[in-house]
Amino acid sequence: MIVDFHVHLFAAGHLPRRWFDALARYLASKRPATSSREELAAKLEGRILDPDATYLFADLDAAKIDVVVSHPLDYGVALGEPRSSPEEIVAHNAALQKRYAGRYISFTGIDPRRPGAAEFVRSTIRRFDLNGLNLYPMAGFDPASPESLAVCRVAMEENVPVMFHSGGAVFPMRARYGNPALLGDVQAELPDLKFIIGHAGFPYHWTDAVDVARRNPNAYLELSQWYKLASRNYGKFVEILAEIKHEMGTERILWGSDHLSGPAVGGDKSALTAWLDCIRRLPQASAEFSQEDVDMILGANAKRLLDLDETGHA
After folding, report:
1. Cα–Cα distance for residue pair 266/59, rounded to 1 Å
2. How many whole angstroms separate alpha carbon 292 and alpha carbon 300?
3. Is residue 260 classed as helix, strand or coil in its secondary structure?
4. Contact criterion met (CB below 8 Å) for 66 and 312
5. Does domain 3-306 have CATH number 3.40.640.10?
6. How far is CA 270 from the centre of its chain?
7. DSSP single-letter state for residue 145
8. Longest alpha-carbon distance in the chain
9. Whole-number Cα distances in Å, 305 to 161, 178, 299, 314
10. Of 102, 103, 71, 104, whose CA–CA distance to 89 is shortest?
C-alpha cells in the first residue's frame, strides 16, 4: 500500500484572495515576469481548484498511489476570510472522504486562535469521522501557545494525530513559527500526543525536526517538499535521509507530496511518479537503505499510524 500523507484539495471559496496574491508574488520572484502579479494571481485561482478530486485521482492512478491524506487549511485569520467558512471547508473534505472511502482520508483543520476552536475540532472529528488535526503555525501562532495546546489536547483525547506544517513559508506568512524546534515545547507539555512534523523542516530546519523527533516514539517526520532537493541533487538527499535514519530509524518517516490538484499542476505536470521513484531507488543508491525501509516510508508507517486496514479504511 502506497500512502501519500500530505495533499491539499481546494474548491472555489476555500482560499483567501491574499493567498493567491502571495503565491503570485513568490512565483514572480522566481522567474522573469511575463504578466503582473495581479494577472498571475487571477490566472492561478482557477487553475489549482479541483472540487470533486477529478484531477487528484487521475494523478494518483497514474502514479499508482493507493491512499491520500488531505489536510484542510484555515488561512482566514492570517490573510482575511475566504468565502467558505472553516466548517464548510472541512465538510467538503469529509464528503470526499465518504465518496472515496478507502482512498481519501481527511483531517480536520482550523486556526486555534478562532473562538471555539477546541470544540470545532472535537465536533468535526466525531461528526465526520475524521482522522487527525491539521495545524499551520506559519499563519501566525506558536504551536505551543495555550490556544494551540488546547486543540492538541482534544486531538489526543480523540486518539488522532496532529500534523504541524514546518519549514519554509511564503511571505506574508510568519516563517519563525515554522521552526520545528518549537514543537519540543509541545511534546514537553503533551508527551502522549501523536504528531507529524510536516515537511520535516525542509529546507533549512531539518536538523531541528530530527532533534525533536528522534527520542519521541509519538513523533513522525513527513517528507513532502523534499522532492525539490531530490530532483536537483539526489546524492545530497540520500545522504541527509541516511543521517535521519541513523538518528531515528525509518519506522517514523512518512512519504508525502504536498500535491495540489488542478489543471496547473496535474497530468504531465505532476511530479508524483518521479518523487516516488526517488524513494524506490534508495536501496540502489545507498547500502544504508533496504527494501523494508522503502516499504515503511511509502506506506507501512502511515498504515500503522492511522490504523488502516488492507483496503485503506481507518
Report:
1. 6
2. 9
3. strand
4. yes
5. no
6. 17
7. S
8. 51
9. 8, 23, 10, 10
10. 71
